[in-house]
């Protein structure tokens, strides 16, 4: 599921939400002022990139902006890249763990 970001027209707060399908979710309100005037922001990094592209374009030393950390698909990217450089194919346990973290980052806290 893609993560969409919305900007509050009243106070400028950014709200991130997981979206099923392509429609804006109903009942979305600004977390800080309660306004319903939210417009979707198309994030530059979130679309049109395959996971392979993400791994290849990941740079260890470069600055990451907030969008990078907000995007759960970037979880574990460094580990994936290191395995790739070492010529090691990640095993299924690793891949499914990563998949769980990316689809539900809050799970990290529960384990
Ligand atoms: Zn607001």
Radius of gyration (CA) equals 16 Å
Portion of residues within helices: 25-40%
- Tertiary shape: elongated
Mean pLDDT value:
77
Strand content: 5-15%
Classify the oligomer.
single chain
Q: What are the segments in which pLDDT stays under 50 over at least 5 consecutive residues?
A: none
Strand order of the largest sheet: 2-1-3
Integer count of domains: 2
Order of helices and strands: EEEHHHHH
Distance between the termini: 22 Å
Largest sheet: 3 strands, antiparallel
Assign the structural class, choosing from mainly alpha, mainly beta, alpha/beta, alpha+beta, or little secondary structure: alpha+beta
Q: Would you report the number of β strands?
A: 3
User: Please, how many helices?
Assistant: 5
Ions, cofactors and other ligands present here are:
zinc ion
Account of the protein in words:
The chain is of the alpha+beta class. The protein has two domains: 3-41; 51-103, no CATH class. The protein is 33% helix and 14% strand. It contains five helices and three strands. A three-stranded antiparallel beta sheet has the order 2-1-3, with no helix packed on it. A hairpin with a 5-residue loop joins strand 1 (3-8) and strand 2 (14-18). The longest helix has 12 residues, at 92-103. Residues 8, 10-11, 13, 30, 32-33, 35 line the site of zinc ion.
């Amino acid at each position: 599921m893609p993560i969409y970001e919305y900007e509050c027209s009243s106070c400028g707060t950014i709200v991130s939400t997981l979206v099923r399908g392509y429609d804006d979710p109903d009942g979305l309100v600004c977390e800080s002022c309660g306004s319903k005037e939210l417009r979707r922001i198309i994030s530059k990094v979130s679309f049109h990139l395959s996971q392979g592209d993400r791994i290849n374009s990941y740079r260890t030393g470069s600055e990451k902006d907030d969008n990078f950390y907000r995007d759960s698909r970037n979880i574990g990217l460094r580990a994936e890249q290191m395995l790739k450089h070492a010529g090691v194919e990640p095993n299924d346990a690793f891949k499914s763990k990563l998949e769980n973290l990316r689809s539900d980052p809050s799970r990290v806290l529960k384990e």
